[in-house]
């Protein structure tokens, strides 16, 4: 038996939803035994979550003992034994029974494909959610596959070799937009990202485990400043700094504190242990444009 896939699930304060997510995952994947489930537990107490792994033929339980934030997913990445890693949120329900086979087929077709982002919808939503579109153009046809330059969280597959090369999520981000920063490193290392609507999932966006909305949006804005500083080339970084804040405030209708976000960014800039700025190359910027994207966004 060879484990080809490692499914990594990070959980925090969502015990009932986690049970539903893992039950659905097991139902969709059936009796196959070529995958392992890795549960990364960010809760302070163990509880009975480990028993949820009993139906799975191969599993690992990694207990954090405190809420490390989204970069705790890296613990699952480090432990993964599969050729491919599927990152699944603890409130996302898989809809595609042959998901793993489709992921493998896409990776086999392109040896420089580093990540696959899937079609995702939110339960109860009827409007087009632009934040779920893995592109800077929000009018792209989501019924067709396309090469892109960023992935959306919830359910995403990685070639393990890609993550081993570029690294996982930065510990600088406790929550919010961490996918965009990792996407920059993936494409800057010469890997590609593909959107594939043949694989779909439903996100519940369960409020458990999340902070108050204004604090979340303020943190996301601060993270956007950090990501732009770290990865955007000149002069696009200046355009982004000038235009992104009013764009976000218009969309969120005041649900973020610009002052608070700037303060968080400046505090981060003062840290001695923060990553150094390494903007994407001009070749990477050209790749983004070839995908129909905008570098400054």
TrEMBL record:
UniProt entry tagged with the keyword Transferase: yes
Residue span, Glycosyltransferase 2-like domain: 6-166
Pfam family, one: Glycos_transf_2
One term of GO molecular function: glycosyltransferase activity
InterPro entries assigned to the protein according to its UniProt record, in alphabetical order: Glyco_trans_2-like (IPR001173), Nucleotide-diphossugar_trans (IPR029044)
UniProt keyword terms in alphabetical order: Glycosyltransferase, Transferase
Membrane-spanning parts: none
The family this protein is said to belong to: Belongs to the glycosyltransferase 2 family.
PANTHER family: GALACTOFURANOSYLTRANSFERASE GLFT2, RHAMNOSYLTRANSFERASE WBBL
Protein name: GT2 family glycosyltransferase
């Amino acid at each position: 038996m060879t484990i080809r896939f490692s499914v990594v699930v990070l959980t925090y304060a969502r015990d009932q939803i986690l049970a539903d997510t893992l039950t659905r995952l097991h139902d969709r994947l059936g009796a196959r035994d070529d995958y392992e489930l890795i549960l990364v537990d960010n809760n302070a107490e163990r509880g009975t979550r480990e028993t949820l792994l009993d139906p799975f033929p191969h599993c690992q339980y990694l207990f954090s003992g405190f809420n490390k934030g989204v970069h705790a997913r890296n613990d699952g990445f480090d432990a993964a034994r599969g050729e491919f890693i599927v990152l699944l949120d603890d409130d996302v329900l898989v809809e595609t029974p042959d998901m793993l086979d489709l992921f493998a087929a896409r990776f086999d077709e392109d040896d420089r494909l580093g990540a696959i982002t899937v079609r995702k919808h939110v339960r109860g939503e009827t409007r087009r959610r632009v934040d779920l579109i893995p592109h800077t153009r929000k009018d792209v046809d989501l019924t067709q596959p396309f090469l892109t330059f960023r992935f959306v969280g919830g359910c995403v597959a990685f070639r393990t070799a890609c993550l081993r090369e570029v690294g996982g999520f930065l510990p600088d981000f406790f929550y919010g937009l961490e996918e965009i920063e990792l996407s920059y490193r993936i494409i800057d290392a010469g890997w590609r990202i593909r959107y594939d609507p043949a694989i779909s999932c439903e996100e519940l966006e369960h409020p458990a485990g999340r902070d108050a909305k204004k604090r979340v949006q303020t943190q996301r804005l601060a993270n956007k400043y950090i990501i732009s500083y770290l990865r955007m080339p000149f002069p696009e970084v200046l355009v982004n700094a000038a235009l992104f804040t009013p764009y976000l405030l218009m969309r969120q209708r005041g649900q973020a504190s610009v002052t608070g976000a700037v303060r968080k960014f400046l505090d981060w800039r003062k840290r001695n242990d923060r990553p150094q700025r390494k903007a994407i190359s001009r070749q990477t910027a050209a790749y983004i444009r070839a995908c129909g994207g905008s570098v400054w966004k």
